[in-house]
Predict the structure.
Amino acid sequence: MLSVHQLSVRFTSYETGLKKKETLVTSDLELAVEKGQVVAVAGSSGSGKSLLAHAILGILPGNARVSGEIMFKGTPVTPKRQIKIRGKEMALIPQSIGCLDPLMRIGKQITRAGILSGIEKNKVRVTNILRRYGLPDHTANMFPFQLSGGMARRVLLATATVGKADLIIADEPIHGLHEEVASDILSHLRELADQGKAILLITHDLSRSLLIADKVVVFYAGTTVEEASATAFSGEGKNLHHPYSRALWQALPQNGFFPVSGTQPVLDHLPEGCVFAPRCDKTKFICKIKRPPVMPTDGGFVRCFHA
Amino acid sequence: MIRQLLVKKVTHLASIVLSISVISFMLVSVSPIDPVRAYIGADMLAISRAQKEKIEERWGINEPMHVRYVKWFTELLHGNLGHSFIFNQKVTKVISTRFATSLWLMAAAWVISGMLGFVMGIVSGVMHGTFVDKLIRFYAYMLASTPTFWMGMLLLICFSMWLGWTPICCATPPGILLENVTFGQRIYHLILPAATLSIIGIANITLHTRQKLIDVLQSDFILFAISQGETIWGATRHHGIRNIILPAITIQFASFSELFGGSLLAETVFAYPGLGQATVLAGLKSDVPLLLGIVLFSVFFVFTGNTIADLIYTLVDPRIKAGAPK
């Protein structure tokens, strides 16, 4: 359905005077989602996950430069094609309630999303979709400020699925939600995948995403360090190949709560070699001078010299 | 809540009226206007000093200022604003008939400038940074610094003198009784003064709308709309306008003072017999009762505009409306 190959995003800005400055925010992303799959993109905040969603949809700000390759349904995604397919073939579930128009009733916003996705105006079934996500019918007459956090997320889910998009990109859909509401939203996403849609689940909540994900892509400092099947995240993480993936797994409270020393490097001061080298306990000389290439593993790929 | 608001507004208005009346009364009192001379005019030479003193005593001109003020204000509270000698009518009568004429002009200018300015602001905001935006902004800045009377004269020269499309003066054709004037004739005489007043008024609303729209277009919900397949114009139509119309209407109501000030100049240039022209005449001919009356009336007029601007959010914005305790 969707594959991303060597995707990099740069921001151009002007420093004092007219000195042009390019900041690399994500580099060499690798990612693939198939029909019927939930692929989780996990990593700490500031690792460039949301930019990935925006790059796929083509809604990055004007000073962003994208290189690399995005393939959707077997053909390359160009800016021109992005305009044609966003909202119709791929839909976004954004992370904040601020993405709803504060002065428009919910029903109207869902209808508008439906129309944009290519459904005729009188064929958009707002009540059906509200009920599907357990929202009362009168939600349609409410304004965003009247919604609770959980309701807002369900509404966002509704706007993305009222049409017939085959790929749904969920950007932190469960961030800040109660356990109960979060697992409900997750099960809806799983259901959508089981109905044949492809789900890209962007989250920093590794343990919750594992409840529904088929594959996990681990993000670190603007790049993908490993792609592994969700089953690899078990026990002590022996089936994981990248030290950061293991560290992320072992840092979870239920897995020992082991912290990794150091902090994620700032994106415009990335180390020359492996981005994780400064914090890795297996660092060799080569790790410091060369970026490790992508190497296939049994469940995906890894970007490490020691795997 | 409405009741509280009403009490607050009325108190506010009362305090403004009181302070404005004191200040304007003081200003008129210390001004070199001699009321007797203003009233009698050229016949001043014909009356003796003793006669003048008699009139002054009868009018109470030599009493202390505060005594005169209290007398005047008491009459004011009874609805008596005095007599205008230049129109030889009660001041209330002059203001009401004159305002009725001005209302046409101001309403037309208000609506036209509001709508044109809003549309231009939207175009400029959506296309910000482009040539079109620069053109609209240049136009707005230029108009913002153009004096009303100059613009009026320019239009008069162009459309009335050179092209002969519009009448040269007045609100109605000369030589026709007021009751025989048709609606079409009124409109015909309204075009140029209204155009003058609205062209000047456009700048403010255009620049304000432009900036508001640029801010709104950078918000998350617009980005989300774009991700749903909306174009920039579509996003503006469905989400942008909705979010900028209230501030625009507010600013338009808050511009009543500029409107009043502008009509003063525009009416003078076009000899349009409205309240603005009466103000200028009252000032030039030292018609103190009329001048004070118009000052107080303008307070009510501007206050009304500002109050509506204040209330609009409370009454229309769903976030405030629904959030208010019942």
